[in-house]
Amino acid sequence: MTEVNSPQRLGGWTRFVTARPRLSLLAALVLTVLAVLAGSGVADRLGSGGWEDPDAQSTYATKALEREFPDSQPNLLLLVDAGRASVDDPAVAAEAARLTERLAGEKGVTGVGSYWQGKAPGLRAEDGHEALIAARITGDEDTMGETLDRIAPALRGAHGPVDVKLGGIVAVRHEMQTTIQEDLLRAEIIALPVTLVLLVMVFGSAIAALLPLGIGIVAILGTNAVLSGLAAFTDVSIFAMNLTTALGLGLAIDYALFIVRRFREELAGGQDPLGAIGTTLRTAGRTVLFSSLTVAVSLAAMLVFPQYFLRSFAYAGIAVVLLAAAAALILLPAALVLLGHRVNSLDLRALFRRGRPAKQAPSEGGGAWGRTADLVMRRAPFFALGTTAVLILLGLPFLGVKFGTADDRQLPSSAESHVVQQHIRDGFPGSPGGGLDILAEGPATEAQYTAYKERIARLPEVLRVDGPLVNGDTAYFTVQPRGESVDDPAQRLVGELRSAEAPFDTKVTGAAAVLVDSKHAIGEQLPLAGAFIVVVTLFLVFLLTGSVLIPVQAVLLNALSLTAMFGAVVWVFQDGHLSGLLGFTSPGSIETTLPVLMFCVAFGLSMDYGVFLLSRIKEEYDHTGDHDRAVRLGLQRTGGLITAAAVILAVVMVAIGTSRVTNTKMLGLGIALAVVMDAMVVRSLLVPAIMRLTGRATWWAPAPLRRFHRRFGLSEGESAPAPAATEPERDTVGSRG
Q1: pLDDT per residue as tens digits for the range 309-344
Q2: Which of 116, 379, 403, 702 is 20 to 30 A from 227, alpha carbon to alpha carbon?
Q3: Strand, helix or coil at 468?
């Protein structure tokens, strides 16, 4: 038997990461401190928008209107409530005039107007007890937020006979940004201690439990520094910070779990710490490397979309995945070499065993998972068809999905800006601020403007047309739809307005136009993103397994594992079931970018667990050549690990899902469901059933691809791959396969 712990058997990577372990950890500590300094206050530099296509017609029109008619594009609304009195009462009108004058005198505020100045019916509630003051706060997002913070305390609240609340786009986005920061802190406070308890339950040893948590914290802090740097050059969404926390903890814990578990197995099998690290990095280490690549590929697909909301998740996700993998493959081995057998110290579970002998870590759960594998493989057709049918059934609600835009209803119903916007939706004619704006560019006469206005006013979905306001050769009209601002008729109206004949160039913007353009941009790039994920995933899984069939199975089963998530998203968040229990307001639609984001994240995490399972099955198959035994042992030796990792990641995602912002709640709870379904249903039942049905054909590949895999594929050693079964590997209980 070749001694795997002898110096000559240690590969180059093992020697590199263990040569100066104390120096490696010290350097990591210094870099982490620098990351804390670089990433401090990162949330204040991130944006709360990013759902628009920057190259769309609606985006161009919005920027042009802001430039040419800044005073006519309000982004701040003051809801003035006169109580039981009428807004036309002299005392109410006098106080409203005073508030309007005070707001107009504030620095950074322009275009102040109110119902009381021109008696515009659209600015007065239908019951006559509420009216609006509109204004525009100038500057970029940070400047607008600072201005709002400065002027809001003096404006909101009771003023004589009236009560004032603040709404509008600026107020909604600023309140959303503040809420996300508070929710993220609360999620971290919830997730960290619960995760530590679960890790202690998995490992028993408090020392072993702290290692994955430390790797996760390093990954999170490093990614915050990366986002802070990126925010200096490009727009980054604050929503991406939620993914940073979730993936930073979840994936780092996954990778560290896998490496620490294998290291303890090798120690229990008789290896010394250095030899155990060598074997661990050749097996679990290579799995972590390929797993991180597959997750990064899924997240990188979001870079093809133009919306910076999606691109931000790619930035954050790729950074945190690579940092988690780097920490697990560099820092963790250094720590394990220094700890050696002390990694099993502080066995807290001994307090509850009351004198019973401790179980060896490698055999934890092996019997139960072995019996599960036997049962599934004996009834393979039943489990394959039954599981597939259940997953498809759970996904059926997604067929009724309706796409919309993110608005104030993302916030809790008690949030001030949500209250204001809801009052406007329910009580004001034509929903001020929810109409469509038409930008008209080019020379035109008053008669031409009038004829165009009359033409579009006759469209069946149009309630009212206001304007035009003219500035040189540029003008704009405001169109109020008859129904909701982003419902199907409003979206059809966008197309009708864009195709309407005019003697000048027209471009349409507004909430419905932004939604139409966003759906078009996503639909246009979706095939490219999907093809990128599929092709690169197929290639990486082939490098891992050398099989043609397994990569195809992996892609199809991963996609199938996401059906429950998508069905639940529509049933719960669009249709509003459980809205009272979960504390959110359903807008009756799903924000357009969310399904893309959730697919990329959940698909990557599913591949993460898929690689864990497939790599161990491949390892056993190479040692024995027995397909059924390899599937059984692969599930037996990774089933408990995958389930533990999935539960821990689900806990982190549920903590994120406690957010008061609906999109974040949907992201956290939806991905938690997808992770649990993938680990406990797809990996435990569907994968072994399908592999039992395909038999030894699972490992087939044509001769050219076999030669390619022998040369470039993944092997257990650090040199060129050896033929199967020529380098037997110690199994989890120290016996030979």
Answers
A1: 888 889 888 988 888 888 888 888 888 888 888 877
A2: 403
A3: strand
Tell which residue, 592, 453, 577, has the closest CA to residue 517.
Answer: 592
Which 3-state string (H, E, C) describes 551-580? HHHHHHHHHHHCHHHHHHHHHHHHCCCCHH
* pLDDT digits 0-9 by tens, 254-299: 888 888 888 888 888 888 888 888 888 888 888 888 888 888 989 9
| Dihedral sign for Cα atoms in the order 132, 133, 135, 141 | negative
| Greater model confidence, 733 or 78 | 78
Of 734, 691, 659, the C-alpha closest to 190 is 659
Can you tell me which residue has the tokens 């149009």?
Answer: 462
CA 76 – CA 148 distance, rounded (Å): 9
Mean pLDDT for the stretch of residues 218-244 = 83
Neighbours of 293 (CB within 10 A): 20
In this structure, are residues 695 and 547 in contact, taking their beta carbons and an 8 Å threshold? Answer: no
Q: Which residues touch 386 (CB under 8 Å, ≥6 apart)?
A: none
Two tokens at 453? 């206005």
DSSP structure string for 585-635: ---SSEETTHHHHHHHHHHHHHHHHHHHHHHHHHHHHHHH--HHHHHHHHH
Does the pLDDT of residue 358 top 60, yes or no?
no
CB 591 within 8 A of CB 51: yes
Which whole-number Å values give the CA distances from 600 to 297, 526, 682, in the listed order?
A: 9, 11, 18
What is the H or E stretch that residue 152 is in? helix 141-155
Please state the rounded mean pLDDT for residues 470-481: 90
Q: Give the model confidence (pLDDT) of 163-172 as tens digits.
A: 999 998 899 9
CA 31, CA 218: separation in Å to the nearest integer?
A: 9
Structural element, H or E, at residue 157: strand 157-159
Tens of pLDDT along 376-420? 999 999 999 999 999 999 999 999 999 988 888 889 888 999 999
What is the model's pLDDT at position 598? 92
* 737 has pLDDT over 50: no
Amino acid letter at 530? G
Average pLDDT, the chain: 84
Residue 171, pLDDT score: 92
Residue 728 has pLDDT above 60, yes or no: no
Q: Smallest Cα–Cα separation from 677: which of 517, 526, 568? A: 568
pTM of the complete model: 0.84
Strand-strand pairing, 162-167 and 157-159: antiparallel
Please say whether the beta carbons of 327 and 215 come within 8 A: yes
At 469, which helix (H) or strand (E)? strand 462-471
Q: Residues 507-527, buried b or exposed e (16+ Cβ, 10 A)?
A: bbbbbbbbbbbbbebbeebbe
CB of 322 closer than 8 Å to CB of 179: no
| Residue corresponding to tokens 């990126």 | 230
End-to-end CA distance of the chain: 14
Among residues 617, 605, 600, 610, the alpha carbon closest in space to that of 553 is found at 610
Write the Ramachandran bin of 521: left for phi over 0, alpha for psi from -120 to 50, otherwise beta.
alpha
* CA atoms lying within 13 Å on the CB side of residue 721: 21
Q: What is the mean pLDDT of residues 565-569?
A: 94
Query: Quick one: pLDDT at residue 718?
Result: 40
